[in-house]
Amino acid sequence: MTVASLTRRWAAIPRIPGALILFWLLLAVIGPLLAPFAPGEVVSRTVFAPISAHHILGTDYLGRDVLTRLLCGTSSTVLLCAAATLLACTGGVFLGMIAALKQGVTDTLLSRFMDGVISIPSLLSALVAVAAFGSSVPVLVLAMSLIYMPGSYRTSRMLALSVARRDFVLAARMRGEKAGYIVLREILPNMTGPVMADVGLRFIYSVRLLSNLSFLGVGLQPPMTDLGSLTRENLLGLVYGAPAVIAPALTIAVLTVGLNLALDSNRREPG
Amino acid sequence: MRAQSGIIQPPSLISVKNLRLTGRRGRGPETPIVENVSFDVAEKEMLALIGESGSGKTSIALALTGYARRGCRIAGGHIHVAGYDVTAMPPAELRAFRGKTIAYIAQNAGAAFNPALPLMDQVIEPALLHHTMPRRMAIERAISLFELMALPSPGTIGSRYPHELSGGQIQRLMAATALITGPEVVIFDEPTTALDVTTQIEVLEAFRTVRREEGFTGVYVTHDLAVVAQMADRAVVLKNGVVQEEGTTEQILSAPRHSYTQALLAANTPRIRNNVTETKDTGKDVPALDVRDLVVGYGGTGRDGRPRHTILSDVSLPVLPGETMGIIGESGCGKSTLIRAIAGIQPWTNGGITFEGEPLAPRIEARSAAQRRHLQLVAQNADLVLNPAMSVGDTLRRVLTFNGDAATDVEIGHLLDMVRLPVALADRFPPELSGGQKQRVNLARALAARPRLVLCDEITAALDTVVAAAILDLMMELKRELGIAWLFVTHDLHALRSVCDRVAVLYAGHRVEFTPVAALETPPHHPYTRRLENSVPEMRADWLSDVIGQRDQACDMAPAMPSSRGNGCCYVSRCPVREAVCEISVPPVRRSPDGALISCHLTIQDLSRSTAPGDQS
């Protein structure tokens, strides 16, 4: 790959969503290190304390520092969902491209399988997976990636179909190129934009699913914590208007809505 | 004149003064598209805006309606149309102005109609939207417009849907939509560019008739000088957004002053590029490519072992090494299918193809590496043929490495040089290139494989005349330098004449004539070949009237026969010289003295006679 094509690739990454994703990933990695207290430590005798200089976001139902727990919770939500999204989309995109290129039996088998998976409501299949294999990080990540792979598969298959119909793919096929080369060099680079938008959407979906699961108590188990379980465990604080319940709920909203808006604004911009 | 506040009555119906249009890509800086353009159009006059793509002619035409495309804006100057100051109108007034005072006929009419609604609803929509007349009157007016434009069954055509009509008919319906409100100004934006020459005639004639009856003022945007000659009174020649020359159509076409206009004219004038006319028509040569009785179809095979619906019926085509074979016919005649079959991406049911003595497998995957390499396809659409994410250099490099050749920068430079492109282009990406440059890179990619035969599928169809002429020149230079044989598919008879050694004429999947190019100039010919020849626009102003006068209306109205109709000549429904026998038996192949093979029941003598001048009238 020449320098020109590399700089071009770099320039093609959308600015605003790119910066936002980078921000959340950074927060996920270094957030827990910035936390003022240990996540499990009871630091105050007041439960559901309001915002104060000592506890910026108050305390939770056991008197733990909410900011600390929020930083840890954000970290696990973002990292878990990012991992699941990465798996789901890598699998989905590649299977989608292969189905589009091979067509025929390969396409039919793959598509029907994906249709089968997609027809089960996502929360239901996640609950079944947790019930069968227990709730652990690998089970959650794998379940989420399996649940969101069909969506990514369908999007990529359609994108790849429209690219594969173009004449330069025909030229490559007529030259006798192998499927691997066609998929990686001819098709994939021409669908990065929409695929990136799709990756963002899957990430938002998985944040929602993980938060739902944790809220129901079958997601991440203590002592680990995520945004959903934080909301759940401090639900009582709603009566007191405690920041302990508002902060994690707001974080979920900012994370998902923000990313969604950023991706949308990017799609409307030409070029 | 209308009572518009603060507007002085302009001397002419359309007056453009110092128009400046700018555009920007993304967040880039504003760049001028059109600079300091001024012209006037008198009432009932037709002005042509001539130029290549990118010359700003469509931008100007749109600006007349007060519209600027996304990212563009009217940055300066004044536009007065029928008493309105277009540049100063608020959006609400502009909406009332568009469609009522000024109407726009776009190039691709098929895309302008909603496929889910019957046509009449869409044709009368502007009248209802602008409350110019009640529904019943609008329908009556639409029907009279249909009649005027010679549409078949004008009374009922409105109840049909867009997909049920041909491209030429849709284009006329689009004109009816524009004219329904009786606008004072009508803009034609390349309305016939996407049509076949045979269809173009009907549409141009319809436009002329309707203009005579309705008497509107017109602006005709085109790059085709022959069309300008038929349609316009005056013309403005544009290049890169700047007016090069302005004058009456006659003066521009016969005595152009500006050098650019002269270059445009030269590109439009047919000339023979193919200097090596040593066509070895001895019949002794081994063909490089031999297509024998090829049948392509769909819908399963019938009892006779042939497909139920045929696209190509027993087409034979021997291409000698180093010659240029032309294939011509209107859209739907099967010429692209033939190319695709030879290229190995369209399976056939009967017949066969041999390449350099070896049989070719129907599927490209089953062909040998040498066959794939020596038989190259150059596809039509320059926008789709290059991978937009791969630089020009990488595109060429891949072909070289794939075929095991040295892929050095020198070699890539050599390839680019071969298609007359600067070496610096190797680092550029296809979206940054112009249409002509893309088509050259496309050619270079085919040449990188060192082919013996190149299949060209309408490679100049989407290009401007000047650019297309340069590509044709290039083809012929390469033919001389490298001894490559070309199979050149087109619907442009000029291009065909100027580069080909031999020509096959296809109609409805049948090869109706196969002739050395020299024999094209003189009779005898198949009636369809003659019709094609007569349809090529000429630059004299009375050409259209002449052709229309010669035409047999009944034949023109007849639909093209489906080629699966079994017995009989494929051209019988449109043939002006048909006889009873043509309906029932397949015509024999006759050989004319100058070497043309003609499939017709008429004898060579009769065919020669019916072509004689004066016979038609």
Automatic annotation (TrEMBL), chain A:
The chain crosses the membrane at residues 12-35, 78-100, 120-148, 199-220, 240-263. GO terms for cellular component: plasma membrane. Residues 74-263 form the ABC transmembrane type-1 domain. SUPFAM superfamilies: MetI-like. The keyword Lipid biosynthesis does not apply. The keyword ATP-binding does not apply. Keywords: Cell membrane, Membrane, Transmembrane, Transmembrane helix, Transport. It comes from the Bacteria. InterPro entries: BP-dependent_transpt_permease, MetI-like, MetI-like_sf. GO terms for biological process: transmembrane transport. It is a multi-pass membrane protein. It holds the Pfam family BPD_transp_1. It is found in: Cell membrane. Belongs to the binding-protein-dependent transport system permease family. This is Peptide ABC transporter permease.
Automatic annotation (TrEMBL), chain B:
One of its GO terms (cellular component) is plasma membrane. Residues 14-265, 289-533 form the ABC transporter domain. One of its GO terms (biological process) is peptide transport. It is found in: Cell inner membrane. Pfam families: ABC_tran, oligo_HPY. InterPro entries: AAA+_ATPase, ABC_Ni/Peptide_Import, ABC_transporter-like_ATP-bd, ABC_transporter-like_CS, Oligopep_ABC_C, P-loop_NTPase. It is a peripheral membrane protein. It comes from the Bacteria. SUPFAM superfamilies: P-loop containing nucleoside triphosphate hydrolases. Belongs to the ABC transporter superfamily. PANTHER family: ATPASE AAA-TYPE CORE DOMAIN-CONTAINING PROTEIN, OLIGOPEPTIDE TRANSPORT ATP-BINDING PROTEIN APPD. This is ABC transporter ATP-binding protein. It comes from Acetobacter oeni.
